[in-house]
Design the sequence.
């Protein structure tokens, strides 16, 4: 079972992750608005997305998880965005089609529902050994006699 210090550290990471997400979203939107007059909207969207993702990588390594950036982490980091996109898309579809949610509200709800998945994946990528540590804790619990 995680100790109080580990829980406090993870709670701090969650709060910082949310802050970085807000800054990253704002950065993306400003970049999109700045680029859009000079190129087609989808090209502006794509370039803004990539630039914001690079910024997000550095904000998450230095601020959220307080770890050192590496090329390996940098190359794996887009997996968090792909995961986020897939989860949000599936959530959006489910909320609109099956739950009958308003299409103006559903994207926001889907985005909020994707946050825990994105947090866990980014943590595993940016903090070496996180996946291994979680597996060891699970194994220790399953072999416990208590």
Sequence:
């Amino acid at each position: 079972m995680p100790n109080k210090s580990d829980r406090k550290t993870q709670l701090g990471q969650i709060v910082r992750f949310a802050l970085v997400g807000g800054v990253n979203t704002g950065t993306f939107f400003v970049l999109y608005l700045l680029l859009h007059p000079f190129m087609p909207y989808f090209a502006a969207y794509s370039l803004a997305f990539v630039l914001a993702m690079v910024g997000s990588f550095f904000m998450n390594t230095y601020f959220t998880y307080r770890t050192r950036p590496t090329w390996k982490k940098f190359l794996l980091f887009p997996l968090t965005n792909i995961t986020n996109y897939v989860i949000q898309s599936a959530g959006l579809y489910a909320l609109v089609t099956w739950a009958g949610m308003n299409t103006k509200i559903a994207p926001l709800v889907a985005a909020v529902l994707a946050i825990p998945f994105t947090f866990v994946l980014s943590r595993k990528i940016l903090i070496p050994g996180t996946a291994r540590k979680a597996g060891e804790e699970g194994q220790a619990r399953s072999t416990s006699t208590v």
Remarks:
- The first helix runs from residue 4 to 35.
- The helical segments are 4-35, 41-64, 71-76, 78-98, 106-126, 130-142.
- Residues 137-146 have pLDDT under 50 and may be disordered.
